[in-house]
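Minutes, project check-in

Agenda point 3 was the complex the collaborators sent over. CS summarized: two entities, 652 residues total, and the question is how they sit relative to each other. Sequences were read into the notes so everyone works from the same version.
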Amino acid sequence: MNNVRNKKRANKSLPFFFKDEFKVFFVIIFVSTILLVTTFTFDKVPPILNRGIQPATFPKGLLVLIMFLTAVIYYLSFKNPWKKEKKLPKPFFLTILSFILFIIISKTLDFFLAISVLSIFVSYNWGEKRIFYLLLVGILFPLVVFIFFEMILGLRFPPGIITNLYYY
Amino acid sequence: MMAPLFSSKLLIVLIFGTLFGLILGVLPGLGPTTGGALILPFTMTLDPLSAIVLLTSIYCAGTYGGAITAVLINTPGTPAAAATCLDGYPLAQKGEAGRALGMATVSSTVGGIFSVIVLVFFAPVLAQLAYEFGQPEYFALAIFGLTMLASIGEGSPIKNLIAGAFGILISTIGKDFMTSIDRFTYGINELSVGIGFIPVVVGLFAISEMLTQSTLLDQVFKRVALKAVKLPSLDDYKKTWKTIFRSSGIGSFIGVLPAEGGTVASLIGYSEAKRFSKEPEEFGKGSIEGIAGAEAANNAATGGAMVPTLALGIPGSATTAVILTGLIIHGVRPGPDLFREQPDFLYGIFGAMLIANVLFFIFGFFGAKLFARITLVPNKILWPMIFAVSVCGTYSLSQSIIDVWIMLFFGVLGFFMRRFGFSVVPVIIGLILGELVEGTLRQSLVIFDGNWLMFLTRPIALTFFILSLIALAFPLLRSKKQKK
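CS then shared the predicted structure for the full assembly.
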């Protein structure tokens, strides 16, 4: 209980733009505004074909509702500040980095190579240093997954430097 | 009712689903919702009945499986087992882990079977009522389902509503289904067909959980030794049978309410067990009634949650939202017509749920010790493997790499949503109900010639709107009461 109170107090002493409440409020309002502007670019249906409401009306209503509710939670946070979240640890950022690596490798080199690299990278950075287990998650398991999807489910994976060795 | 299940293929699917569900339930962070999402792409290779039997057996067994971890390592394998920790772990610490798990197994099975009976009798009645529904009534019903999101879990009701509205917004991406006009496609061809359910479901549940696990690597579990699961004694039965049946009723009722589910049911089942107990002071210290109250309720919610899912197409819980996704991708549209046109299909599901409850009793009773060992698989091995399955599963559906990127995007988004107190479940429910909400609204306005006030002239629609207002007001009143 004291811990939560201390966390809340710590969050209260920060300038408003550093607080989680403001960051969340800002991001939602910013993205919603961009999307709302986009809705004005949607094609309009001529009145003769229009049934009920224009295609842009429903998303517009939703975005206005999201922005209104976001303003309400921000307002309520003045009375009842959110608890300050712990700083994100290094493995979190490394996992995000592994996703980026996955996208780059799967796009440029090979889908399964990307899975292997991500698996080894994540496992290693989460604390697994034993070679056998790294090979298990990085090579053996993706191989089993590949065989399962390819042979049993009949799926064809995107071409790449390793996948092509199997296909051609 | 059981006839369709007497095929060897369906029985194998059922046994596999139950075992898989138990494993998922045992592993903290996974559970039947994430597991169902992971297995969803694989169900495409099955016929619709086998696919839904697989998902429902995972649902039933996974809900029970959470109790094993709750008792042995004081960590609920699923959120619905959180209340089981309160008494299960203290009892296990006293050297009675087998007794605690025995009671959890028996009360889960009774709760589960009770709720299937409720499902068999109540779902056709609700479906019959739904014949009276026109477009305005369906719109009002969908709104009611969405406002129930406000009361999901312990999170902020307003945040849940924002998440639900966001889910509906995602459903508007792509070509407008009435006029074929592109919305939010930004010239990307792949987006004109909209965003698929599976990348969003897998991203929000599995990938966001993987990121959450990356922040919890320093967590150490203390496991209590388990010799064998014991059937409760006659004294235990005498003490708990009323609690088990009361919680079964509570769980089934809570499950029927759209968007509620096992977590809420188990908390209410637990608190009611305490209220009626002759020994309330024992609760939190290892009360056998506490375990019975929570476990009977959370498993009873499984059948209850299937009632609105099958009869109306409104998910009763997070996992039934995944099951509903499974029905939709297999071309099965839940609702009253399903009861009239495909009774064999429905009774196959009912029978499968009944058998799954018996199967997890057997597997849980004889295999709990083995399943408990699964918790020893370290996250640094488990999650990279789950990632590989998630990626391939998501890719397999439309063989599109864009779907994999969408999954990753929603994974990261889901992580930050959870971090700042936004539940991801409303996003899925919003996404599923989005087309229904918009479609019925627009068609109703055509019927009403654009006059919004005409909604109030339809008694059933008006009832749902009033219920929606109550659903919105309830969490606010509850939080005020808690402050007092």
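Noted in discussion: The mean pLDDT of chain A is 83.
Follow-up: revisit at the next meeting once the mutant set is ready.
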